[in-house]
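Incident log, structure service

09:12 report received: a user says their structure output differs between two submissions of the same chain.
09:20 pulled the input from the user's history:
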Amino acid sequence: MKKLLITGAVALIGITANAQLQKGNIMVGGELAAANFGLNEGAGYRFEITPQAAFFVQDNWAVGPYVRLGFAGAKGSDTQFNYGVGALSRYYFSPGEQGVDNLLRHGRFFVEGNAGIGGQNASNGGDSANGLDLGIGPGYTYFVTPDIGLDASVKLNGNLGFGNRGTTSAIDFRLGLNIFLPQKRAMSNIKTE
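09:34 re-ran on a clean worker, output below:
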């Protein structure tokens, strides 16, 4: 009897861990902080807020819009205002086989890419870069509850375009929070399982 209860509890946890990533669900949240390790001369600090929303077009794959606002600076240089708007695509990898530890059982690895319009403008009219905003990188979402996930990711971001600087690039470490909102169909699937 004890084995049956434990098996049932593990199965229920597995069902709820996958339910938020089903086709038709919505992910709302964003990245709340970003640390930047600049690849360009004069690299320094960076802080950004990136609200985002995504719709699961199929299980484990979400697409949607993002807006990025932030500022950056370095010792002895002007403060930069960063901005961007565009589309993101995030794919969650399915969990591995049995024997995965507790951290992996309550979370998922993902890869995310984005493309849009963005740039950097200096506070005192210095160098600027505006144009095509691109980014890609891996991450991990730990599900605190079945509907709330904490994200950590590393992204290579670049801006290809116009302005005094032309092309810029950076590697960012990002932390975020997302809320997963189930659709009626997804809720009925959870109840039947």
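09:41 both user submissions now match this output. Likely a transient worker issue. Closing.
09:42 reviewer note: Strands lie at 26-38, 45-58, 61-73, 80-92, 107-122, 129-145, 148-162, 168-181. DSSP finds three helices and eight strands in the chain.
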